[in-house]
Specification:
By secondary structure, the chain is α+β, with helices and mostly antiparallel strands. It has one domain (5-112): SH3 type barrels. It has helices spanning 29-34, 93-107, and strands at 5-9, 21-25, 37-43, 56-59, 69-72, 77-80, 84-90. The protein has a five-stranded antiparallel sheet, with no helix packed on it. It has a two-stranded antiparallel sheet with strand order 4-5. The longest helix has 15 residues, at 93-107. It is globular and about 40 Å long. 28% of the residues are buried.
């Protein structure tokens, strides 16, 4: 597992028959590579039908996804490694920066830097 890899995510409350989320790993490479819990941001399961809001980044086929997908950056989840099932792709370099910048902005962290 590496930072900015995209996985199918089946959280503990996931029900059989539901479409798995897409989750982007945002943990440091040391955590992503070795720990049982990693940090992720969640992407929508439906095709994006609107532009991203100020707390979202639009990912698409260039990132390994099947269609344009909105990635919400205002909430970071702790995910168990075992709940991340299939690698779907890796976020391209340009959008890695967008995700990092959007996470900082969505949490108001720039004000304390």
């Amino acid at each position: 597992m590496r930072p900015f890899d995209i996985y199918s995510y089946q959280p503990p409350d996931w029900k059989e028959g539901e479409y798995p989320y897409r989750a982007v790993i945002v943990s440091h490479r040391e955590r992503a590579g070795r720990k049982d819990m990693v940090e992720v941001v969640i992407c929508s399961t439906q095709r994006a039908s609107r532009p991203p809001s100020e707390i979202e980044v639009l990912l698409d086929e260039a990132d390994g996804l099947d269609w344009p997908t909105l990635c919400r950056c205002d909430l970071i989840y702790a995910a168990r490694r075992e709940d991340l099932k299939q690698v779907r792709g890796t976020v391209c370099r340009e959008r890695q920066r967008q995700i990092a910048t959007t996470i900082i902005a969505a949490h108001g962290w720039a004000a304390v830097l």
